[in-house]
């Protein structure tokens, strides 16, 4: 049984290690959007390249995050976590030194692989290391500090872009990794899962990532209507079909399809796809709108987006408590509607917009909607399957959220008629931003309807989320498995 106490020196080192590791991924998910206009100008990149700068990372992260968790269970969570941290840092260095958009996009894909290795291990290390009496407090501190990192991300990103330059958005990860990895090797005990003995579903992971990449390419490049787009779309669909076939036939699949026999699990993941598609599209476009159209600096744009994350950090735990008393259905119905209202309020954000009267009200309403829905969403996912599969349920839900976000980033410019150079023209970008917000609001309303018609109150003895305080706006928090052994 894990026996490290939080008050001990080792306990504090473990907490610091996991906070540093998770902060690298959280910071990266929030700061890059703010840097996109400057990246585009410096590298002479078109809108498609900016979409790929976001999506190359999300493709590999979403496609491989379940495999990353399985690798930690088998070969040791500390070992895979450290590999992920160092891999992430090396890829970040390559991002920071990229001479052109192509190298940056390739480095971002490599960065996503590192994120898939370190992200599942951060919370798992806490669960595997701390004494059961201290685990809840350790998770609370970890998620709280991680939320602070997510909240600081847009501000820090804007400050770096306007000061040292956008490359430091990525280079900042290198010293964090050089601090994190040695502490982990010295102070974090190794752990693994005694049940993890099956073969890895590498084929499933490759097919899943390939399907996402090919379909994303087809959506981003569809403006050209070329044969490459058509072939990519067909190949992506074929890879998706092959992924389902492989997962159905394997005895040890990465994503067992029988989990979707649970109507509640399927329904909550459909809600997840809707809300996180809207969130992914919103945060990609809003950072550009505030800089390209409103004319703010990167620092001003990043700071402007802080309210959503701060509200989640302050109120997510209370939202979870409310969900336990009332059941998740009400919040999963009302939350997306509040988010939709926030995005409709963003229609007022155009040239000469005021932060206090135009931007802030929209972000506060959006943030309150996110607070309302994210905690019960996680709780419903965990409650839909038996306790032994809680980690799997959370991993699938997290991957679904990230996949939804990357599809939105790929599809929204196409659906709204954004040209390749739209982000260089305030008028062109503003013309497309309004329809994009309407689409996002519509998708959120669809998520609300799904929740109202399908989500039911979970059993009283179901698994409850351990991570109650969080600030991530692009994916729900991960939950770890419960059974571990010391290596």
Automatic annotation (TrEMBL):
Membrane topology: Multi-pass membrane protein
GO cellular component: plasma membrane
InterPro entries linked to this entry: EmrB-like, MFS, MFS_dom, MFS_trans_sf
Protein name: MFS transporter
Entry keywords, A to Z: Antibiotic resistance, Cell membrane, Membrane, Transmembrane, Transmembrane helix, Transport
UniProt-annotated location(s): Cell membrane
Sequence ranges assigned to domain Major facilitator superfamily (MFS) profile in this UniProt record: 14-459
Lineage: Bacteria, Bacillati, Actinomycetota, Actinomycetes, Kitasatosporales
Pfam families given in the database record: MFS_1 (PF07690)
Transmembrane segment boundaries: 12-36, 48-68, 80-99, 105-126, 138-160, 166-188, 200-220, 226-246, 267-288, 294-317, 329-347, 359-384, 396-416, 436-455
GO BP of this protein: response to antibiotic
MF annotations from Gene Ontology: transmembrane transporter activity
Domain of life: Bacteria
């Amino acid at each position: 049984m894990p026996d490290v106490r939080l008050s001990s020196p080792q306990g504090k080192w473990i907490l610091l290690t996991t906070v540093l590791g998770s902060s690298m991924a959280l910071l990266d998910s929030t700061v890059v959007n703010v840097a996109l206009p400057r990246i585009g100008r410096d590298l002479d990149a078109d809108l498609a390249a900016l979409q790929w700068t976001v999506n190359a990372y999300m493709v590999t992260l979403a496609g491989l995050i379940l495999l990353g968790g399985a690798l930690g269970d088998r070969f040791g969570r500390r070992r895979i976590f450290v590999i992920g941290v160092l891999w992430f840092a090396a890829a970040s260095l390559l991002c920071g030194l990229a001479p052109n958009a192509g190298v940056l996009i390739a480095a971002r894909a490599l960065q996503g692989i590192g994120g898939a290795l370190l992200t599942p291990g951060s919370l798992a290390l806490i669960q595997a290391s701390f004494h059961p009496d201290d685990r809840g407090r350790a998770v609370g501190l970890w998620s709280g500090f991680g939320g602070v990192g997510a909240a600081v991300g847009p501000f820090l990103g804007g400050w770096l872009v306007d000061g040292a330059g956008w490359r430091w958005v990525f280079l900042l990860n290198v010293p964090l990794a050089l601090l994190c990895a040695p502490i982990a090797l010295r102070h974090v005990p190794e752990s693994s899962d005694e049940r993890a003995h099956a073969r890895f579903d590498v084929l499933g992971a490759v097919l899943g990532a390939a399907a996402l990449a090919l379909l994303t390419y087809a959506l981003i490049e569809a403006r050209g209507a070329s044969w490459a787009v058509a072939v990519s779309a067909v190949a992506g669909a074929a890879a998706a079909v092959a992924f389902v076939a492989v997962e159905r036939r394997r005895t040890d699949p990465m994503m067992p399809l029988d989990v979707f026999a649970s109507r509640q699990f399927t329904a909550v993941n459909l809600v997840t796809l809707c809300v996180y598609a809207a969130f992914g599209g919103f945060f990609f476009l809003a950072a550009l709108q505030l800089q390209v159209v409103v004319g703010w600096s990167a620092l001003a744009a990043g700071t402007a987006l802080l309210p959503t994350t701060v509200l989640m950090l302050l109120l997510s735990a209370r939202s979870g408590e409310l969900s336990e008393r009332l059941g998740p259905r009400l919040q999963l119905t009302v939350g997306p509607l509040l988010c939709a209202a926030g995005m409709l309020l963003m229609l007022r954000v155009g040239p000469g917009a005021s932060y206090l009267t135009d931007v802030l009200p929209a972000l506060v309403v959006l943030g309150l909607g996110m607070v309302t829905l994210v905690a019960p969403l996680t709780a419903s996912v965990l409650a839909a399957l038996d306790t032994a599969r809680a980690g799997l349920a959370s991993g699938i839900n997290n991957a679904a959220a990230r996949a939804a976000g990357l599809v939105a980033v790929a599809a929204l410019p196409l659906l709204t008629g954004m040209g390749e150079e739209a982000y260089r023209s305030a008028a062109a970008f503003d013309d497309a931003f309004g329809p994009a917000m309407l689409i996002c609001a519509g998708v959120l309303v669809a998520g609300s309807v799904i929740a109202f018609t399908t989500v039911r109150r979970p059993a009283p003895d179901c698994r409850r989320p351990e991570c109650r305080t969080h600030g991530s706006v692009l994916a729900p928090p991960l939950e770890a498995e419960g059974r571990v052994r010391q290596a």
